[in-house]
Specification:
Residues 14-407 form the Major facilitator superfamily (MFS) profile domain. The chain has a two-stranded antiparallel ribbon with strand order 1-2. α3 (52-93) crosses α7 (175-196). A hairpin with a 2-residue loop joins β1 (405-407) and β2. It is mainly α. It is built from 17 helices and 2 strands.
Length: 413
Amino acid sequence: MSNPKFTEKKYLVTYSFVTALFMIWGISLSMCDVLNKHFQNVLHLSKSQSGLIQFSVFGAYALMSIPAGMFLKRFGYKRGVLFGLFLFVLGTFLFLPAADNASFSMFRIALFVLGCGMATLETVAHPFAASLGDQRTSDRRINFSQAFNAVGTMIGPAIGTYFLLRATENTNDLSSVKMLYVSIGIIVILFALVFAFVKIPKFADVHAENVEDAMAVNIDTSPNKKLFSHRHFIWSIIAQFFNVAAQAGTWAFFINYVHEKMGFTVQSAGNYMIIFMAMMALGRIVGTYLMKFIAPNKLLASFALGNIICCLLVAQGLGSVSFIALLMINFFFSIMYPTIFSLGLKNLGSHTQQASSFISMGVVGGAILPYFMGKIANVNIASAYYLPIVCYFIIFLFAVKFYKVRLNNSNIK
């Protein structure tokens, strides 16, 4: 059997727009981590209080992912994207009254609405990207799109550091936050208008010749099996919960760690976050290439072990060694989100869109860990990095054992 293509020519325009969505929410998500430090300075918040920024954004996933999946199933991919972009823009414009009133509560509402938009886009974009070509290459397509999400996470800190952290000398300045988010909202409106006129081609049906091929694509070989009877799907939700919990906590206090443990200025720490995010982009490019030779679950297990070691080193506060380990966390984190997502969607057939919304809901883990890491960070920022180790151990278990698809009461690897 010939090697399947990455995608087809007729899907290139649509796939390009879908990939751009990954970059859009990557920019927004990583800017939240700059907001953590900015609001600590401007609104005089503690680290645990600023961790509520992540609670607002990722908490939106818990409430919005399932409705987004229902919307997707009823109205399709294109309208799902446009609905997500509408919520995204609404959230950015809510920064206006929040900044005018210098209200952290109103900022959290704005961030919650923004999170609803991101949750909708993620719920739609992952199965959308997976569908634009042969399903045997869906892992590579999602990881490639996620590489642009990583580019977005580099742009976010660069923008946030330039427009926000430079203004921290004026402890009452919120005008920069207001103008920044309104500008982003206007750009996303223009993107949505262009996407509205894009003609979406019909998706090609995927047919497998035998059981082994069926296991390689997204075809439900047990059509009467209920969604929650698929063990690998349930475990993908659990793994995604702990994965995003680790990500959110690590990102949220990166600037604090570099400022407090390495002695850099806040603005320099923000600039180092660009390198931190670049490591994730590099990891996704390397990971996408390695998946041509290494099974996705095996690569995921290896990267999870890498992050357990890195977190142990970061927690020791060993100066340059810990700083390098902190940067490497994002390299190893790189493939985790899309790989857990694609492994969880395997062999779900007609359940795929609904399953996507549940896996996206697992992102609510990011709402919880930053608060508890912040509590520890109030005392010792380095010790806070012990907590993500638990998360990466759960991911390791999923990658080694619980990713397996069960067919007719047996495991097929």
